[in-house]
């Protein structure tokens, strides 16, 4: 049986993860958050003090790693890891490495009905032929407010203005990078997530009902 693939792309803190979790539960699809993989790799580079500007050092390190954890955790959700993940994501060798992990994950879990995968290049590069492609749109101020609340709730000290600045910087890095920049994927549906979650999932359920 053909596996169903739903992709969710969008900028930092646009609510992709919450939306993906909702779709995963309602439609019994396996959720893969590709951002976790960039964050996990950033953590490895941080711990092992890899110079992330030195492409040879990065490539050598990638050759040594054959698997990384797909598990979420508070310690990869810090502002420092967010920034580092965005910085390493500009390198093509890093993107190829992470894309391979994603293809393996989807191919290995053959018994699953399908997958909902979120990130910045999922519908545009990684799974171009997905059954449904969503692009989540939210203005930066609302994203910063939501991320601020999330960080405070998880016990991290935070300043709203700094978060807004970091979000804008990450948007710039993600949209302007040479390899797999954040774009609205061809054939995707733009979901407005400026309002309530209920309003957002209503837009999505209409689309999912048609697949
Ligand atoms: O989605 P999340 O904020 O966890 O992703 C962390 C960083 O990883 C992003 O800012 C982005 O630079 C990078 N990323 C990416 N492509 C993806 C997922 C994440 O470039 N598919």
Characterization of the model:
- This protein has helices spanning 16-27, 34-47, 55-64, 79-88, 92-108, 122-126, 140-153, 160-176, 197-209; strands spanning 4-9, 30-33, 114-119, 132-137, 189-192.
- By secondary structure, it is an alpha/beta fold.
- Strands 2-3-1-4-5 form a 5-stranded parallel β-sheet.
- It is globular, with a radius of gyration of 17 Å.
- The mean pLDDT is 95.
- Bound molecules: cytidine-5'-monophosphate.
Summarize the helices and strands and which ones pair or pack.
Layout: E1 4-9, H1 16-27, E2 30-33, H2 34-47, H3 55-64, H4 79-88, H5 92-108, E3 114-119, H6 122-126, E4 132-137, H7 140-153, H8 160-176, E5 189-192, H9 197-209
Parallel strand pairs: 1-3, 1-4, 2-3, 4-5
Bound molecules: cytidine-5'-monophosphate (C5P).
Mean pLDDT over the residues: 95
For the biggest β-sheet, the strand order reads 2-3-1-4-5
Count of DSSP E strands?
5
The DSSP helix count reads 9
Described by its quaternary structure, the protein is single chain
* Beta-strand proportion: 5-15%
Please summarize the sheet with the most strands: 5 strands, parallel
- Structural class, please? alpha/beta
Helix percent band: 40-55%
In one word, what is the shape? globular
Low-confidence stretches: none
């Amino acid at each position: 049986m053909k596996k169903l693939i739903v992709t969710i792309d969008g900028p930092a803190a646009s609510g992709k993860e919450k939306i993906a979790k909702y779709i995963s539960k309602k439609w019994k699809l396996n959720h893969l958050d590709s951002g976790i993989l960039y964050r996990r790799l950033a953590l490895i580079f941080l711990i092992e003090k890899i110079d992330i500007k030195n492409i040879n050092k990065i490539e050598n390190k990638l050759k040594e790693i054959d698997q990384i954890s797909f598990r979420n955790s508070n310690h990869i959700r810090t502002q420092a890891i967010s920034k580092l993940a965005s910085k390493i994501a500009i390198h093509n060798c890093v993107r190829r490495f992470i894309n391979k992990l994603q293809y393996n994950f989807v191919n290995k879990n053959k018994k699953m009905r399908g997958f909902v995968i979120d990130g910045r290049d999922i519908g545009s590069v990684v799974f171009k032929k997905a059954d449904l492609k969503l692009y989540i749109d939210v203005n930066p101020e609302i994203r910063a407010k939501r991320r601020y609340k999330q960080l405070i709730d998880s016990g991290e000290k935070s300043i709203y203005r700094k978060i807004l600045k970091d979000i804008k910087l990450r948007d710039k890095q993600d949209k302007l990078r040479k390899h797999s920049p954040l774009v609205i994927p061809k054939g995707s549906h733009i979901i407005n997530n400026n309002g309530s979650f209920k309003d957002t999932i209503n837009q999505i359920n209409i689309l999912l009902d048609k697949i």
